[in-house]
Amino acid sequence: MRRIEQIDPAQGPEMAAPFPALPAGDFDGLIASSAAAWHVDKALVKAVVANESAFNSRATSATGAQGLMQLEPATAGQLGVTDAYDPAQNVNGGTRYIRGLLDRFRGDVPLAIAAYNAGPGAVEKYGGIPPYAETRAYVENVLESYRRYKLRP
Fold this sequence. Notes:
The protein has 153 residues and is mostly helical. Helices cover 54% and strands 0% of the residues.
């Protein structure tokens, strides 16, 4: 997964850890059900969605990642996602991917999040969070959002 380029150029490509207040029910139920199905903390899924797409289900990155959880087309295909812009498919697929990363990195959330951004191979190559500025900022932002969502779901 790659950080999205903001669709609104006035917003700029860089942003601090997003923590938007959503209208009740926008994606909370979908996130909660996918999180429960894949045994992933819903606050973590919500933090990834916030940082990947700022809750924009039509978001597309410069590299072609799509939807709420910014699934790359190849990854989406491997996860059985046929329409990455469909919020239900996207969140289910992205949450399943996080579950796999958490399993691969023995429950280490920062490593799983780094792998979500830079790929699991990069995390394994460096034996931890890769030394990429984008990935380090991404991990920091997701973890900050995660902390906030755990405090105030």
